[in-house]
Design goal:
162 residues, Pnp Oxidase, Chain A, two-stranded antiparallel ribbon, 3 helices
């Protein structure tokens, strides 16, 4: 346990699915490390595990898509977090459409945006992708709540964690 763990244990932020298309491949994964990081200009950072296939595809991508899931989409979180694209075609198991630059956009999420990759930041076992938004959509405000970290504690990572 690290000195930071008691702090982290109190956080319950939204989780996201990040998708990418590059070099004829598609990939996507559940992401728990992500945050807006600038207002002007608008920027968002997502961190991808270096062990993840999505990271390997994203290294050469010009754009990524970030999806906010609803609490009713636990199955989608299990698919993108509990399966690895090294063994499973996740996009054959869910509805999606090509978005800007061909990046897969998942159907029926609370919101999504596609962002141009502006740079990378090596932070250890995850690499940050700095995104500048180019397109996005959101559902009308409803009673539908975002899927949060506490909702996915039962999802075992599809790729090794170390």
């Amino acid at each position: 346990m690290t000195a930071m763990q008691p702090f982290l244990d109190r956080l319950d932020h939204p989780v996201y699915v990040v998708t990418v298309a590059a070099d004829g491949e598609r990939a996507g994964c559940l992401v728990t490390f992500a945050s807006p990081c600038s207002i002007k200009p608008a920027r968002f950072m997502v961190w991808l595990s270096t062990l993840n296939r999505t990271y390997r595809v994203a290294r050469s991508a010009e754009q990524l898509a970030v999806h906010l899931l609803g609490r009713d989409q636990h199955g989608l979180a299990e698919l993108f977090g509990g399966e690895t694209g090294d063994r499973v075609d996740k996009f054959a198991r869910t509805a999606w459409t090509p978005g800007p630059g061909g990046v897969p956009v998942l159907d029926d999420t609370l919101a999504w945006f596609a962002g141009r990759v502006e740079g990378h930041v090596d932070t250890g076992d995850h690499i940050g992708f700095l995104l500048s938004p180019v397109a996005g959509e959101a559902q009308e405000r409803t009673e539908r709540e975002p899927l949060c970290l506490s909702d996915v504690v039962d999802v075992t990572a599809g790729h090794p964690v170390s």
